[in-house]
Design brief:
Blueprint (H helix, E strand, L loop, with lengths): L1 E6 L6 H13 L6 E5 L1 H11 L4 H8 L9 H7 L5 H12 L4 H6 L3 E8 L4 E6 L5 H10 L9 E3 L2 E5 L8 H6 L2 E7 L14 H7 L4 H8 L1 H18 L2 E4 L14 H27 L1
Parallel strand pairs: 1-2, 1-7, 2-3, 7-8
Antiparallel strand pairs: 3-4, 3-6, 5-6
Length: about 280
């Protein structure tokens, strides 16, 4: 039976997931496959490369670096998170991503993006580290309005959360029968219509299918939550989520705020690690 780890996005809320994952890595929990959306992909890749602590370390280090994430970066390059600096310079020079470990780990790694032309999700299996995988992660984490469309391997891509925020069903379809899902919102959360839809519609006016996907994103997300609950009741899915709303927004330039969210994730990981280990042994 193949066992998987499913990671939703949530931008800086993903540091909660990073905290949980670091505890699992420290305890030697392994998966047959990992699938990440947006921040889930950006932070989840460190699980395959075995780099405990890397996600919180580089986010705190570059919290005030305008080349990493800033309005200035957006105005200068069209990307809030600097495409070249954040996704290539940092992992290649300043906090190196371990490409060799990533490639040698047999765990399969999938990234979810949105094809803005069709308004459908794209699932990319990444087996090699390096430039191309970094760009797929960038595409998955490229939020509408504050990011340019990423052109990659014939696709025009943006944030995977636009079309498949919690890709449990997809993972099950490709053979992962027993899954741990890490969410970044507490139980009871339901997504509501986006107040920025007029701005989103304007920024994506060339891609009407992507606009429609964003318009219907709340229904998609809430259906996925209902499906998650159904699968959890069957006993084939274990859901880990924060107990309450995380004290951080989509974007943060406060290292202490980041550390607090990461520590909340670690605390949850420690609290549930025995349950996690038991689930993985069944």
């Amino acid at each position: 039976m193949k066992k998987g780890l499913v990671l939703e996005g949530g931008a800086m809320r993903g540091l909660f997931s990073a905290g949980v994952m670091d505890v699992m890595m420290e305890r030697g929990v392994t998966f047959d496959g990992i699938i990440g959306v947006s921040a889930g992909a950006a932070f989840g890749c460190n699980y395959k490369s075995g780099q405990i602590g890397r996600a919180i370390r580089y986010n705190m280090r570059f919290a005030h670096d305008k080349k990493y994430c800033s309005v200035q970066s957006f105005l200068k390059t069209g990307d809030l998170f600097g495409a070249e600096y954040a996704y290539h310079v940092v992992p290649e020079e300043y906090d190196k991503f371990d490409n060799e470990a990533f490639e040698n780990n047999p765990t399969e790694f999938y990234i979810v993006c949105t094809d803005v032309v069709t308004g459908k999700p794209i699932y990319k299996k990444c087996t090699r580290g390096g430039h191309q995988t970094y760009d797929w992660i960038r595409a998955s984490a490229s939020m509408p309005v504050v990011s340019k469309v990423v052109e990659l391997e014939g696709y025009k891509l943006l944030d995977g959360g636009m079309t498949d925020s919690i890709p449990l069903a997809y993972f099950q379809q490709i053979g992962f029968e027993r899954n741990i899902v890490i969410l970044t919102q507490p139980i009871g959360y339901l997504k509501t219509p986006n107040r920025l839809m007029p701005l989103i519609s304007a920024s994506l006016h060339r891609y009407p299918h992507a606009v429609e996907a964003m318009r219907h994103r709340p229904e998609m997300y809430n259906r996925q939550l209902a499906y998650l609950e159904q699968e959890e009741q069957k006993g084939n899915t274990l859901v880990i989520r924060p107990l309450e709303k995380l004290p951080i927004g989509h974007i943060s330039h406060n290292p202490e705020e980041m550390k607090r969210v990461y520590e909340i994730g670690r605390e949850m990981g420690e609290r549930r690690i025995q349950e996690i280990c038991d689930f993985m042994k069944e």
